[in-house]
Amino acid sequence: MTSVREQEAIRKLMVFLREWDSAHKVARSCILDNFIKSNDGKTEPELELEFSQGASLFLARLTVWLRMTYVYSTCLNKLLKSIGIFLSAASGHRYLLEFLEIGGVVILLEILGLNHLKQEDKRESVKLLQLVADAGRKYKELICESYGVQSLAAFLAASDSAEAQEDVQVLLDSLGHGNPKYQNQVYKGLVAVLPCASPRAQQLALQTLRSM
Known about the structure:
The chain is mostly helical. The protein has a domain at about 1-100. It has 13 helices and no strands. It has helices spanning about 5-20, 25-40, 45-50, 55-70, 75-85, 95-100, 105-110, 120-135, 135-145, 150-160, 160-175, 185-195, 200-210. Helix 12 packs antiparallel against helix 13. The radius of gyration is 19 Å and the shape is elongated. The protein starts with a helix and ends with a helix.
């Protein structure tokens, strides 16, 4: 049997989830602000404690809303940052798996190719892709299998944000190491950046090629 304290915690979780489910854009934006402020840097056990062992229920709602709205830029930056709290949580590997199960990598890569989205949103997407790549070789392979190298190289060449370009360069460098199956693909992707019109992108591509 659950204790009175556990029952109360579960009740609060269900109230929170119902609040999210019934909220419109502005209210959800406020919920995301509060979530980011209160939970940035927390570990998996801390998130589970915060959500009465039901953190995955909120993550599922975030990923579904991302899948439904990323094309329209609905609170996209806050949504990506909130998902990033789960993906970066220490001991939170299962959160990563849950995100990947809904096609998270493909969504993040598609965000990079949408011209109407802000550079800061695309940069946040690159940061999440870096968290995926940091999880190990099979996750680097998943990014590459999803045409990630082509998407990242195209974004590197076209972006007008130096910070975003640097983030992409770090990710491509990561994909080019410890990933023998796709190392040649990364090499070709970087070479394809060299004729672009951005001197900064050319410089970053050359630096990465040298490190490979």
